[in-house]
């Protein structure tokens, strides 16, 4: 780590005497090298302090000779200094009374002209003392840096298990590194409140280019860490999770570049964020079966009890008015289901996503309905959407959503209101018809045999009551289908040999969702 040249000069025990303007000493030294070569540039690097006794400027080659008053007349001080400046040498320390009496005036003039700091090292001060000062300072800075990094890591870990958890850990990291931190979930949505440091008034929101980088990296579905520097800011974006199963990303930004110790602190927060997000994902998947059971309680009208229960999982049920969206579970990819469930689990969301038989149902608060419509449309999802209802009409809304889904073209959101306006079929999902259908078929729906017979009837009626094509689709003999329809006729007290009986059964099947009565 660099040592300020001014600190070296100010060290009293070294008794160093500046020979050029003090303004030139405002720089840092990375290391110390001593050489009496006329061209030491092959052996020095940028930022180094060069110590010399000036042997290259005199004629004598006898190391035991007395110091000379002046160097050789042909000494090229200007060329010597120019070579050092081009190599990036930070300063020259000239040891006097070894080869020359004092510092050659030509060297002082050349350094002053070139703006290269020059100072005198007294005879009694060995060059090793200056080298040791810089080495000790570097070691001290390294120790201090390690101590700061360790303290930062400890603070971040403590914050992560405290009340604020991941958000508090991110704030702690931002304060220690004097930067801004954003943590994103697998959908690229922000999951923490970005920390505003004391030196910037920049927006707390993630800059558009940071969001683009996060979206791009998450879209690749691979572990990655990239530097995404802007003209006035250094940025690092890193994905979290394993390749093919990313759980999020983390982004950092500040005015100065991140060093090795900074990156060690960043790694700690990234690891904690990854563990936290993966745990959230595992809990979300693990809660599915519980939410499905709670949904049955919702249908029974136990809204307050379910509301309290799902809050434990960080989910808020819709308020008094909501709509139900239905998706075909068999045609909905796992990633889409994951996205919908994550959207439901966000703190500012009033959405409830749950599997119900053959459908994935999403209960959407009325205030969020417009946003979710846009999301469905932008994602090219095939969705059936009910009218807005209250909790007492939940079952009706489910039926409306399912009927709308069945009538929906691919990659289209079909609303129940439009279905009613376009077709009498939509009216069959109205509350009165659905209630009557449930009541009439209650004894049939109670048994697995009855549900199976109703499913056979759906296929048979879809084929206009024709036995052969319906039997072929069902994979049974037509006589077997006939015997099943005879059994259903007895259970429902409907004459399925007549148009009226078939029409009544068709209307009742259209008004209810068999998916909600069994799987």
From TrEMBL:
Report the domain of life of the source organism.
Answer: Bacteria
InterPro entries per the record?
A: CdaR-like_regulators, PucR_C-HTH_dom, PucR_C-HTH_sf, PucR_dom
- Residue span, PucR C-terminal helix-turn-helix domain: 453-511
Please name one Pfam family that this protein belongs to: HTH_30
- Which residue range or ranges hold the Purine catabolism PurC-like domain? 10-135
What is the designated name of this protein? Purine catabolism regulator
Please report the organism this UniProt entry assigns to the protein: Salinibacterium amurskyense
Biological classification of the source? Bacteria, Bacillati, Actinomycetota, Actinomycetes, Micrococcales
């Amino acid at each position: 780590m660099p040592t300020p040249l001014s600190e070296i000069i100010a060290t009293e025990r070294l008794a160093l005497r500046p020979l050029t303007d003090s303004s030139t000493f405002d720089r840092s030294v990375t290391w110390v090298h001593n050489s009496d070569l006329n061209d030491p540039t092959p052996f020095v690097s940028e930022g180094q302090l060069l110590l010399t006794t000036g042997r290259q400027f005199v004629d004598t080659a006898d190391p035991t000779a007395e110091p000379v008053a002046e160097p050789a007349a042909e000494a090229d001080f200007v060329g010597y200094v120019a070579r050092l400046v081009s190599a990036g040498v930070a300063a020259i320390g000239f040891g006097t009374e070894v080869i020359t009496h004092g510092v050659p005036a030509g060297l002082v003039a050349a350094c002053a002209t070139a703006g290269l700091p020059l100072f005198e090292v007294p005879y009694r001060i060995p060059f090793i003392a200056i080298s040791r000062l810089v080495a000790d300072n570097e070691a001290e800075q390294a120790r201090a840096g390690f101590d700061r990094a360790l303290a930062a890591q400890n603070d971040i870990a403590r914050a992560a298990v405290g009340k604020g958890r991941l958000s508090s850990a991110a704030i702690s990291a931002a304060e220690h590194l004097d930067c801004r931190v954003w943590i994103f979930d697998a959908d690229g949505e922000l999951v923490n409140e970005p920390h505003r440091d004391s030196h910037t008034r920049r927006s707390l929101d993630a800059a558009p280019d940071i969001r683009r980088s996060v979206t791009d990296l998450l879209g690749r579905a691979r572990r990655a860490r990239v530097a995404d520097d802007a003209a006035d800011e250094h940025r690092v974006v890193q994905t979290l999770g394993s390749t093919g199963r990313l759980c999020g990303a983390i982004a950092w930004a500040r005015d100065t570049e991140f060093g090795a110790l900074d990156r060690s602190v960043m790694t700690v927060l990234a690891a904690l964020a990854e563990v936290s997000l993966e745990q959230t994902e595992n809990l979300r998947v693990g809660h599915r079966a519980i939410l499905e059971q709670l949904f049955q309680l919702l249908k029974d009208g136990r809204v307050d009890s379910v509301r309290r229960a799902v809050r434990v999982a960080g989910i808020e049920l819709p308020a008094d008015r909501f709509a139900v969206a239905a998706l075909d579970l068999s045609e909905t990819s796992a990633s889409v289901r994951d996205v919908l469930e994550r959207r439901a689990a966000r703190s500012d969301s009033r959405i409830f996503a749950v599997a119900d038989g053959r459908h994935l149902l999403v209960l959407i608060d009325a205030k969020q309905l417009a946003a979710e419509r846009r999301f469905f449309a932008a994602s090219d999802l095939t969705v059936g959407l009910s009218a807005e209802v209250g909790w007492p009409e939940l079952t009706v809304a489910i039926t409306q959503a399912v009927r709308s889904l069945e009538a929906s073209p691919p990659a289209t959101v079909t609303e129940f209101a439009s279905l009613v306006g376009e077709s009498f079929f939509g009216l069959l999902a109205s509350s009165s018809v659905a209630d009557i259908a449930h009541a009439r078929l209650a004894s049939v729906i109670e048994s697995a045999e009855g549900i199976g017979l109703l499913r056979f009837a759906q296929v048979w009626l879809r084929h206009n009551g024709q036995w052969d094509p319906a039997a072929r689709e069902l994979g049974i003999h037509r006589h077997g289908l006939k015997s099943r329809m005879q059994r259903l006729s007895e259970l429902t007290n409907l004459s399925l040999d007549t148009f009226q009986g078939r029409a009544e059964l068709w209307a009742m099947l259209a008004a209810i969702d068999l998916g909600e009565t069994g799987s």
